[in-house]
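seq as requested:
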Amino acid sequence: MKIVVDAMGGDYAPDVVIEGVQAAVKEYAVEVVLVGDESKIKSCLDRHKVSSSNITICPAQEVIGMSESAAASVRRKRNSSIVVGINLVKNGQADAFFSAGNTGAVVCAATLSLGLLPGIERPGIGIVMPTIQGASIVIDVGANIDPKPSQLLQYGIMASLYFEHILKRQNPKVGLLNVGEEETKGTEFMKETHELLSGSHLNFIGNVEGKDLFSGKCDVIVCDGFVGNVALKVSESVAEAIQIFLKRHLLSNLWGKVGLLFLLPSLKKFKKEVDYSEYGGAPLLGIDGVVIIGHGRSNMNAIKNAIRVAKDEVERRFNEKITEAIKPLPQA
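struct tokens:
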């Protein structure tokens, strides 16, 4: 199992990336190819005293910045860590690719280089989120902001398969993120999507609202990339705000500080339960290859777990399951 990791991707690269890689090769039976600026990677490996025969370096002199245009930068920077890394998978030199860098560039490079699975119209980013019932997967959170109803049906199928084969939970409940639960709610686009999902073999429970993102009412939440990305960013900001509010009030007086000592074990459990890093990266589903996308602020734990997610997808031949499930569907 050989996994390519973009050493230059993320807000804290390359140090945190290499820390995560070091943890992954110790815990999982994988080889990792670090792609990026060779001198910076070697310096970082020396600084962290990393010495492993399971870690190699593939030089790439360019980096696609987080704010750069996805399509333009992929075309212009052919020697970037993202493009070089994905081409290693394309050429059969590696089994999977992970990056916490520019999401749009990863989607664009993967689509252009690896192509789509037979029958898939557009790729979608699925992200696993904690709920009060365990976890759910939301798709799409940014790859496709102007989809067709048929593409949302495909997202529902791919995410359901991911829930079954990667998260190991059978017959997942699927919901369509809408402005109301009634099937008459929403735009014509949403109504047509609702009709397609209702007529499919999926365990479709109907429309769900924003309040159901963390309720555990369903296991798979389907939406377009625009709505999904907004929902994801709002969720992240709420989680950060709660932490700030808690610190502000618990540390504002002596009794709060004393109470904090007793609350610490529970707060640590709470933090672990809602910590995105426990779920690793987000799979880019529908691509003819295994591509995992990490949060720009991914920490060491997130990168380690993203490598685990990539390993699981490869081992379970997940893309073959998607292809089999999509075959019977009429194409748009």
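The first helix runs from residue 15 to 27.
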